[in-house]
Design a protein that fits this description.
Number of helices: 3
Number of domains: 1
Largest sheet: 3 strands, mixed
Strand content: 25-35%
Oligomer: single chain
CATH superfamily: K homology (KH) domain
CATH architecture: 2-Layer Sandwich
Mean pLDDT: 93
Radius of gyration: 12 Å
Number of strands: 3
Low-confidence stretches: none
Helix content: 40-55%
CATH class: Alpha Beta
CATH topology: GMP Synthetase, Chain A, domain 3
Strand order of the largest sheet: 1-2-3
Distance between the termini: 25 Å
Order of helices and strands: HEEHHE
Structural class: alpha+beta
Length: 78
């Protein structure tokens, strides 16, 4: 699942090297945290959060197929 998320995010941003994705798994719950450069933050979130919502929908459907629950969080790079 992390590979799918990484592919989606890196194809949206201008600086794919600046993408950092961390994965925390506990039981059947998986949490992904996406960190991108400040310039690419708008590309990941999209207008009114539409792109972020679409990423979450794709990840939820992939997780359901794997029998997991997923949460995707977008955080600002420090």
């Amino acid at each position: 699942m992390k590979d799918l998320l990484e592919y989606l995010v890196k194809s949206l941003v201008e600086n794919p090297e600046g993408v950092v994705i961390t994965e925390e798994e506990s039981g059947e719950d998986v949490e992904f945290k996406i960190s991108v450069d400040k310039d690419d933050m708008g590309r990941i979130i999209g207008k009114q959060g539409k792109i972020a919502r679409a990423i979450r929908v794709v990840m939820r459907s992939a997780a359901t197929k794997a029998g997991k629950k997923v949460n995707v969080e977008i955080i600002e790079k420090e």
